[in-house]
Fold this protein.
Amino acid sequence: MKAARQACAVVVVAACSVARPLCAAGTPPIVRVYVAGSSEAVSGSRDAIQELCSRSNVAVVVRDAAGADEALLATSRSPGLAEAYVDLRPGTPPRVVVVDAETRQDLERRTLPEHASLEISIETMAQVVCSAVESSLAARAAAPPTPARASEPASRPRPAPAERWESRASVFASAVNFGAGFRAGAGLALGVSASRAPVRLGSFFSVSGFPATDVEGAGGAASFGLFGARALPTLEWQVSSSVVGFAGVGLGADWVRIKSERPPPGAVSNSPGSTIDPMACGMLGLRLRVAHGVAALLALDADLDLARHRYLIESPDGTGQPFFEPNRVRPVALVGLSVSLGSSRETSEARP
């Protein structure tokens, strides 16, 4: 009788030992994926990842990141196998970041092609995530068991660098009407915008020059040349993935030089020299992406001369006759090419 009881105890212990790993194996590890993008991008990502990762026997949970950036992974502490952040927002390069849910180390970090359609980006993203999940499962299965250690307070990892601002250099041709028809000129500009938000602040600094051209009036002729500089705070908005609109209002100055070329009969030749005029300006324009980091620049500008000038022809008897008066309001058109100079990144440290 005692031998029978001992045999039964052995059978029960053996059954429990076998059942325990089977029960544990029946609970698939959890993979959480946060998708930043439109509702179509979130739902499409959910279908693609769950279908592709089904062969790995993992539970995939796809959530809307609600516009959050990659730093979302640093604040998440949910148990599971892995976590991923997918950026499918319009106007930003598609990105995938997969980290280990326990160690928070990168399993995969990849930037996808910018010009691909949303469907192709979703399919590629799903393959990257599921491939990283399979590699993590294989690595855990091959790793030897480690002895349990006393729990230590884990230090919070630093979030990935965040872009603070982006700068661009531009070269452009321009045309302006000073009051004697449109004149052609050229210039250089430097643009700076804050982050990659759909609506953002920026600035536009430019210098431009117009070669001396002849103006005629009352039988006389003179050459008129100008060199100008402008500084405009701007507001930018992402119209689409390849189009950015901007508008700005600012101030500047024009260095104007006029030189007498041919006085009219009976008049005295006297060149008034040069002046520096304060200017107010407003600009409305577009940047159209033509390649990675390169965009076409199209803009319309309106300049207001804050110091009015009128040039006269002086006769020998001391009387003056109007010769040329520059427009106080001058329409300007700009066409050029803008090249990205890169962006500044800031790494913020999380507090313990």
Observations:
- Residues 118-142 form the longest helix (25 residues).
